[in-house]
Automatic annotation (TrEMBL):
GO biological process, one term: transmembrane transport
Sequence similarity: Belongs to the binding-protein-dependent transport system permease family.
CDD domains: TM_PBP2
Its membrane topology: Multi-pass membrane protein
Signal peptide: none
Domain ABC transmembrane type-1: 70-284
Bilayer-spanning residue ranges: 12-34, 75-95, 107-128, 155-178, 205-226, 261-283
Protein name, entry field: Multiple sugar transport system permease protein
Subcellular location: Cell membrane
Gene Ontology, cellular component aspect: plasma membrane
Length: 294
């Protein structure tokens, strides 16, 4: 037994260590996704028997005005969240300077990342309060009255996105700080010898070494934007009049409050398809970029 283990331990050890995570992934993630797709072809209240209706939920989805509002809001979240990686990179470049007191600044910028999303949502709800919030104080300083942004269907989505992007920028900043610690000093020195400074140094020497970090930052940011839920639940509950809903929250509302689990699963399936298409496209782009680099 021991001799067999010694002969095969090079592949047995990593296999046994990875196996629990693989099993958990297949059971919790993949099986749940397949089950959701199956439920989307049924009419089900979550308690009684499921009734097969084929594509009925998807046909109804295409005629649902709220679905298009949620889809538009997801697009707004996605476009806004794409600002998080470059802003995180800018902060990381700033905080990576060897200046006295920079460790304290890093800690301050790191705070949003360790706060729970619910806490961030509550804080920004106070900030947006028209009578007593920080936004109100800023407007009063200029002799104006602060709008009730969380009650205005034209501004509510932007207001929630601003609250949600704050910790996302901190997350990207931490990723880039870790990446900058692994940047080759030899290449930096060679770039300086060749006359690279400022933007040229960043573009031609630093950024190529941060390709993997950028890949992770963009992928996680996009997925986070598409599955946005907690901030909306805390700050607006999808209001006013459903104007701040996204696909994830509409799925939750239809399933939990309206007892339409089949319809909610159809929304979840559409959201899953969008994520899969984006991730597949993005991975292909990265692979092609790596092949050209080689």
């Amino acid at each position: 037994m021991r001799s067999s283990w010694r002969r095969h331990r090079e592949w047995l050890t990593p296999t046994l260590l990875i196996l629990p995570a693989v099993v958990l992934f297949f059971v919790v993630i993949l099986w749940s996704a397949v089950e959701s797709v199956w439920i989307s072809f049924h009419e089900w209240d979550g308690f009684g028997p499921m009734v097969w209706i084929g594509l009925g939920n998807y046909v109804e989805l295409l005629d649902d005005p709220q679905f298009y509002v949620s889809l538009k809001n997801n697009l707004i979240w996605l476009v806004a969240f794409l600002a998080a990686p470059p802003l995180g990179l800018a902060l990381a470049l700033l905080l990576n300077q060897k200046i006295r007191g920079m460790r304290l600044m890093k800690s301050l910028f790191f705070i949003p990342l360790v706060l729970a999303s619910v806490a961030v949502g509550v804080v920004f709800t106070w900030v947006y309060t028209p009578e007593l919030g920080l936004l109100s104080l800023v407007f009063r300083a200029f002799g104006a009255t602060a709008p009730a942004v969380l009650s205005d269907e034209h501004f509510v989505t932007v207001a929630v996105v601003v609250a949600a992007i704050w910790p996302q920028i901190a997350f990207c900043m931490v990723l880039y700080l870790a990446g900058l610690n692994n940047v080759s000093e030899e290449q930096i020195g060679a770039g300086r010898v060749d006359g690279a400074r400022g933007w040229r140094m960043l573009r031609h020497v630093v950024l190529p070494q941060l390709t993997q970090v950028t890949f992770i930052a963009i992928a996680v940011t996009v997925v986070g934007a598409l599955r946005s839920f907690d901030m909306i639940s805390v700050m607006t509950q999808g209001g006013p009049f459903g104007s701040s809903q996204v696909l994830a929250y509409q799925m939750y509302e239809q399933s939990i409050f309206s007892y339409r689990f089949g319809y909610g699963a159809a929304i979840a399936t559409v959201l899953l398809a969008i994520m899969v298409v984006f991730i597949a496209w993005y991975v292909m782009r990265i692979v092609r970029f790596e092949e050209k680099g080689v």
